[in-house]
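Good morning C.,

I know you're traveling, so I'll keep this short. The sequence:
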Amino acid sequence: MTYASVVKHMVFPLAQALAGGGTLDYIRRWEKTQWLPPDRMRELQLEKLKKMLAHAACSVPYYRESFHKIGFEPGDLKSIGDLDGLPVLDKRDLREHRDEFLAEGLTEKVLTAKTGGSTGEPLAFPIGNSLRATAVANMVRCRRWWGIDIGDKSANFWGHSRYIKHRPLDGLRKALSLAKGRVLNRIVCSAYDMSDESMEGYRRRIEKFGPAFLIGYATSLYVFADFLVRSGLANPAPGLKAVISTAEVLYDWQAETIRNAFGCPVVSEYGMCEAGIIAYECPSHSMHTADETHIVEIVPVEGADSGDIVITELENYAAPLIRYNTKDMARRVEGPCACGRGLSRISKVEGRAYDIIYASNGSVVAGALLTHTMKSLPKVGKYQVVQRDLRAVDISYTAAEPLDEDARGFVVRTLQKYLGADVEVNIERVADIPKERSGKHRWLKSLVSREDARGARESRR
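The tokens, ready to paste straight into the viewer:
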């Protein structure tokens, strides 16, 4: 028996049971329901929606009050389209009424999802085991579309706030996380350190490990692929089934470089910490929504071809999100998919674009470094990072009180560690951060051109 089989049949089921259970049952059910015809899937969604709304009206304080204010009775809902009579939530609602979203009489384990947020507004929100389990089940189901199964080796280009030492126990948390990853048959390459020297180390580790797939931030995957191509290096993992891009918008030119470097499909995954997996790309290149767990609306935006992605959860009874505006944008895709699945379709997500940020030596650093740094500071409300040039970064933030010297020092040390010791970091508290003309809050802006970054890299060789 291979170690991958040990993980699939022993380690993974045990880990899921210890976390709260439910995952394996969801996987078995959804392997079947994904083939339902669209009309039957909508019937299933409507059944789940009615049950969720009745639960929310009875057991979730926020919805009990908000439904009462507008005179809504769950029994009045006759079709999924009737959802548009309910108010739309945003992150501000989740932040200001956090505890009111928790259902009364909970029996399942509750965790906290922390996200830096591509909108530049950190969020800590409760999630129940049902959301955790459905998110994992959706990942398993969708990766199987590409021949990737539980236990297959993976190399993850990843970052997390635990990888940025701020508190005394962060080093231990990082070590435990990496150890857990190895038990689950994966290795982690830091998305925060993408220098040529570090990437050469990642290449050797990947070559030795032999993963079945890569997964990571779009920017980091692209930068690593570009490093291999421009260095004339061979694919370190010729057996790859796919490269999975997540957390950031993957541009076509990035995907092309990744395909050239690894010679395998490049797959888009769309989800978020507070809502789990929402959509996944299939081998026929459709972005299928996870209809068993979410109703996905595309709400028109004036002056735009795309609309806001608004989701309603169907399985998360601990702290359900009903008509939650993700602030990402996409278009509805009508008609059946060549893959034969009855799951709904949207275009690839067009929002949540992280600008590329560069270190002073011209190397690319994942934008998630900034979100994971800022979400470690609970006093911060909104924030915006502007990279003026290769040696200057300005951070504006809103907060009731100014950051103390320890917090400011942490931000400066972290950015200088990954962007360069010669980078000047300016931090300023402001009354508010203006939105873009589109109405969106752009959290990261880099004014550095690719040509300037390339020049910096070449000058150091």
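Safe travels,
E.
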